[in-house]
Amino acid sequence: MAPKGFFFLAVLSFSALSLSPSLAEEAQGNGLVMNFYKETCPQAEDIIREQVKLLYKRHKNTAFSWLRNIFHDCAVQSCDASLLLDSTRRTLSEKETDRSFGLRNFRYIETIKEAVERECQGVVSCSDILVLSARDAIVSLGGPYIPLKTGRRDGRKSRADVVEQFLPDHNESISAVLDKFGAMGIDTPGVVALLGAHSVGRTHCVKLVHRLYPEVDPALNPDHIPHMLKKCPDAIPDPKAVQYVRNDRGTPMILDNNYYRNILDNKGLLIVDHQLANDKRTKPYVKKMAKSQDYFFKEFSRAITLLSENNPLTGTKGEIRKQCNVANKHHEEP
């Protein structure tokens, strides 16, 4: 008669062999994979890419939105598209917090979702759409193509209550910014590269008037001040008015390393830009990226990959939302 221990091991071995491939992968903790939808929705990534191109052709600023989305969603605990959820009677949306000021174009995420749903209903998550649209927007802006894994599932609730805790802010010390990104596994050169996203888009006056009024910040390049004052003529700007300064006047629509040359010349708009160029921990990487766009793209690609893989919901966690702005009804909390 076989010993009981041997019989138990034999049962365990048989159970492991009996697991389906997907369960076996989940048991091994594989989580995200390249081309997750190759069998369930093989056209998914092509559809997203085409939609991003079409939207960019019609509305250039959508690319900036997709790039901001990946930062605002993935940095707050999980890459789970919680950013896209609307407010409910009980829960405030992340989109409506002060830290999300200036975020827009969410309706076009629904446009992409609808196109994917027409091909494969209930298969592709909003969180993967959010990540892949950011990847393709980076290309539209002249940046590198970054191969990103998929297989995320969508969260069911907003994380508005912890946005301040996890999302780095442009008015925080560089130490706080490094710490928050560090908690996601993104090191110092990665942080410097991610902030290179300030190479494109614009900064609303409400975010930078404290550097102009009541006194001009002496750290600003004097040659840049007249332009900033012209664009932001009021000490207390109307938040509903479209008043802003382009982050990079030289190449405002191109993701490139000109940002680093600007901040070394004291032309950064935000406090974090100034600190990045002057702090001894970050300045060496700023100088290196100012000299080499290839180095910037290499570190930017690595940092975006790490950001996109921050604590995703995979396997049986979360859900695949029918609409990106609302959780599926049968999963709503009572």
Automatic annotation (TrEMBL):
<dbReference type="GO" id="GO:0005576">
    <property type="term" value="C:extracellular region"/>
</dbReference>
<keyword id="KW-0560">Oxidoreductase</keyword>
<feature type="signal peptide">
    <location>
        <begin position="1"/>
        <end position="24"/>
    </location>
</feature>
<keyword id="KW-1015">Disulfide bond</keyword>
<feature type="binding site">
    <location>
        <position position="251"/>
    </location>
    <ligand>
        <name>Ca(2+) 2</name>
    </ligand>
</feature>
<dbReference type="GO" id="GO:0048511">
    <property type="term" value="P:rhythmic process"/>
</dbReference>
<keyword id="KW-0575">Peroxidase</keyword>
<feature type="domain" description="Plant heme peroxidase family profile">
    <location>
        <begin position="31"/>
        <end position="328"/>
    </location>
</feature>
<keyword id="KW-0349">Heme</keyword>
<dbReference type="InterPro" id="IPR000823">
    <property type="entry name" value="Peroxidase_pln"/>
</dbReference>
<feature type="binding site">
    <location>
        <position position="76"/>
    </location>
    <ligand>
        <name>Ca(2+) 1</name>
    </ligand>
</feature>
<feature type="binding site">
    <location>
        <position position="94"/>
    </location>
    <ligand>
        <name>Ca(2+) 1</name>
    </ligand>
</feature>
<dbReference type="InterPro" id="IPR010255">
    <property type="entry name" value="Haem_peroxidase_sf"/>
</dbReference>
<dbReference type="GO" id="GO:0042744">
    <property type="term" value="P:hydrogen peroxide catabolic process"/>
</dbReference>
<keyword id="KW-0964">Secreted</keyword>
<feature type="binding site">
    <location>
        <position position="73"/>
    </location>
    <ligand>
        <name>Ca(2+) 1</name>
    </ligand>
</feature>
<keyword id="KW-0106">Calcium</keyword>
<keyword id="KW-0408">Iron</keyword>
<keyword id="KW-0479">Metal-binding</keyword>
<dbReference type="GO" id="GO:0006979">
    <property type="term" value="P:response to oxidative stress"/>
</dbReference>
<feature type="binding site">
    <location>
        <position position="80"/>
    </location>
    <ligand>
        <name>Ca(2+) 1</name>
    </ligand>
</feature>
<dbReference type="InterPro" id="IPR002016">
    <property type="entry name" value="Haem_peroxidase"/>
</dbReference>
<dbReference type="GO" id="GO:0020037">
    <property type="term" value="F:heme binding"/>
</dbReference>
<feature type="binding site">
    <location>
        <position position="248"/>
    </location>
    <ligand>
        <name>Ca(2+) 2</name>
    </ligand>
</feature>
<feature type="site" description="Transition state stabilizer">
    <location>
        <position position="68"/>
    </location>
</feature>
<feature type="disulfide bond">
    <location>
        <begin position="74"/>
        <end position="79"/>
    </location>
</feature>
<dbReference type="InterPro" id="IPR033905">
    <property type="entry name" value="Secretory_peroxidase"/>
</dbReference>
<feature type="disulfide bond">
    <location>
        <begin position="205"/>
        <end position="232"/>
    </location>
</feature>
<feature type="binding site">
    <location>
        <position position="256"/>
    </location>
    <ligand>
        <name>Ca(2+) 2</name>
    </ligand>
</feature>
<feature type="binding site">
    <location>
        <position position="168"/>
    </location>
    <ligand>
        <name>substrate</name>
    </ligand>
</feature>
<keyword id="KW-0732">Signal</keyword>
<feature type="binding site" description="axial binding residue">
    <location>
        <position position="198"/>
    </location>
    <ligand>
        <name>heme b</name>
    </ligand>
</feature>
<keyword id="KW-0376">Hydrogen peroxide</keyword>
<dbReference type="GO" id="GO:0140825">
    <property type="term" value="F:lactoperoxidase activity"/>
</dbReference>
<feature type="disulfide bond">
    <location>
        <begin position="126"/>
        <end position="324"/>
    </location>
</feature>
<keyword id="KW-0325">Glycoprotein</keyword>
<protein>
    <recommendedName>
        <fullName>Peroxidase</fullName>
        <ecNumber>1.11.1.7</ecNumber>
    </recommendedName>
</protein>
<feature type="active site" description="Proton acceptor">
    <location>
        <position position="72"/>
    </location>
</feature>
<dbReference type="GO" id="GO:0046872">
    <property type="term" value="F:metal ion binding"/>
</dbReference>
<comment type="similarity">
    <text>Belongs to the peroxidase family. Classical plant (class III) peroxidase subfamily.</text>
</comment>
<keyword id="KW-0090">Biological rhythms</keyword>
<feature type="binding site">
    <location>
        <position position="82"/>
    </location>
    <ligand>
        <name>Ca(2+) 1</name>
    </ligand>
</feature>
